[in-house]
Amino acid sequence: MSNVDSQIKSIKPFKFSGKLNAMTSKSFLQRALALASLANGVSVLTNVQWSADGLAAADVVHQLGADVQEEFRKLTITPDNSSSAEDVLLNIGESGLGLRMFSGLASLKNQAVTITGKGSILERPIAPVMETLSACDVEVSSKAGKLPITISGKLKGGNYTVDGSFSSQILTGLLISLPLADGDTTLHVKDLKSIPYIDMTLELVQLFGAKITHDDYKVFQIKGNQSYNGTSYAVEGDWSGMANHVVGAAISGSVTILGLNEHSLQADRAILTALERTGASVVWNNGGITVKQAQNLPFELDATHSPDIFPPLVVLACAAEGVSRITGIHRLMHKESDRLAALIETFGKLGVTLTTESDTLLVHGTGSVSAGTIHSFNDHRIAMAGCIAACISDGPIQIEKSDAVKKSYPLFFEELVGLFMD
Does pTM surpass 0.85? Predict the structure, then answer.
């Protein structure tokens, strides 16, 4: 792997061989940081590896007054529960979860909280955030429907109806916040997407000491005036980033990954269903998962609740001879890129035809891809998938703006080199 430019990587064809520890789940880490900032008492988070989104969440928690002390893979968070009349400015970096989750937390404050960010997040639509908070009688404003957004609070209990079709992350912010609100809440949610991520939120809410019940994710009953307790929590490994490595092994060799939860609530664990359908060997043993190449069959998968694994799923489909069908493309528009358009353009440059049929992406796999130069579209998941595609390439694949991986997996290239087998 050469590095002509710090943002251009050239990946030669290779096979997977080796073992690694799973990167920390940024989804669980960000939720845990948010809850720790609201708790009574000190929380200790272990198994912490930083990504850009994780760092942004830690910075926001600090901006909200919490003391965050770091040791090796360990964070100690001491919240500041004192009230203040001063307005607050939060910078959530490029984190979509950070924007949507901390908007909910901001509505608990007695003062105005303004949230801004940088990079691609400045162009993402915030109307769904504003509409959801407004539906809960929270005063919110922005300039021309983009960041910065100002939340003037204050969230109280009530009978509310919100739309869950755009992102479950907005609901996550409410579910973390409403147990602390004055008064009980009945929250009606229409057309909820990415339900596994709500399960993650509910699991951590319970771990930190609050209780929420629901009726099939359509009606949530939340007692007000609850509290969170300082908690010790070991953050589990990240299925989203590791999806790239298990796909690479499934199409080109083998890999063993330690630190993944076999029974995880993470939506992107669905990558295992795709591996099984394509004929890969998947074995759990002694706290690790080993994936080996076996068959490369076309497959079908509904990824509506796990849109972040679309890029590695496309690579998996490219390795099969025939048409694979991946459903849920309506979830791909408002990511770091227009991920559907990015996938079609990226793999088109690598000689693979991708077409759409209603809400389904059809990958016309031939068993290989062509050498070529692609752009990450500043999307970490496109960059990683492009690298993994080199496993079935007839020559090097160059990825422009490859540093996009820092958003979720800063050590991606370093760890990938450790898995190379020519």
Answer: yes
